[in-house]
Amino acid sequence: MKAAPFAYCRPDSVDEAVDVLAAGDAKVLAGGQSLVPVLAMRLGRPGTLVDITRLPGLDSLVLEDGQLHIGAAVRQRRVERSTEVAAVPLVGRAMPFVGHRELRSRGTVCGSLAHADPAAELPAVAACLGATVVVRGPRGERTVAARELVTGAMTTSVGPDELVTGVRFPVAAPGAGFGFAEIARRHGDFALAGVAVRVRGDEAVLAAFGVSDRPVVRELTVDDPAEAALRPVTDALAREVVDTDGDAHGSRGYRARLLGVLAAREIARAHREAHA
Asked: What sequence ranges are listed for the domain FAD-binding PCMH-type (predicted)?
């Protein structure tokens, strides 16, 4: 199929882009790796596409004030290959799992956050790290905590007249350890289950994805960091948070099993890293 007819707009400023969005029936085009297939299958029929790829300031990738600032036009591949991403190890570890290399060369970090696919890696990483999403709208600029960004499958708290302009990831604190893993039928496919983990001291933050309609974040106290000792805890957590229906790729019980194993393994790994 082909996309339904639409108008194309390339604004010269963020304010102009917001004005077009506020007029209604418009969608933002950044990387297009999620939007274009939706248009091609006619699952979405916006009247106007607002191309933000050349807007001034949205291509910034800088370390500043203890945060990694990533603009809305920054490609995933650029982040993956940057020196700056070393300051936020969990982002660097997750990036190779985001789709395929060809998709990452066009897809954007903020686009993945705004698309809010339940199986996407970056929304879970952002939620695990306590990242902040910057949004501009007719009423000015505001920030949204990454844990509050996704409200359901493919749904966020960003209004139809608002534009995500960037995301801020806090740099890794001294003594922190990280873990990331997912299971997919093939590398680059949608994750059947995945975890992003941050550990500091005996406290762990875990964000699960691919098992619900949004990233599920839980905070745990690690009494015994051995993987075998963690399994009863993570198995119970998995049974609690996995609420997706089964499909041809795996039942609900299978996903819970995967999540329990991955969570225990990555918490143990992150703990070892934190205490190395």
From this structure: 1-174
Please give the pLDDT value at position 180.
98
Sheet of 67-71, strands arranged across: 61-64, 67-71, 163-170, 132-137, 140-145
Total count of residues recorded for the chain: 276
The pLDDT assigned to 153 comes to 94
Q: Give the domains, in start order, of the chain with CATH numbers.
A: 7-51 (3.30.43.10), 61-170 (3.30.465.10), 178-274 (3.30.390.50)
Structure tokens that stand for 65 in this block: 């004030």
Please give the structure tokens belonging to residue 187.
């590398």
To 5 degrees, how large is the angle CA 201–CA 183–CA 106?
95
- If one counts every other C-beta atom within 10 angstroms of the C-beta of residue 60, the result is 15
Is 263:240 a contact under the CB 8 Å cutoff? no
Let me know: does 113 contact 122? Beta carbons within 8 Å. Answer: yes
pTM for this one?
0.95
**Positions of the chain with pLDDT lower than 50, given as ranges:** none
Half-sphere exposure of 243 (CA within 13 A, CB side): 9
Helix intervals (H) in 50-188: 76-81, 89-94, 101-104, 109-115, 121-129, 146-149
DSSP alpha helices (H): ranges in the chain? Answer: 14-22, 35-40, 76-81, 89-94, 101-104, 109-115, 121-129, 146-149, 227-241, 252-274
Structure tokens at 259: 């999540």
Longest dimension (CA), the chain: 58
Q: What three-state secondary structure class fits 96?
A: helix
Instruction: Give the pLDDT of residue 1.
Output: 66
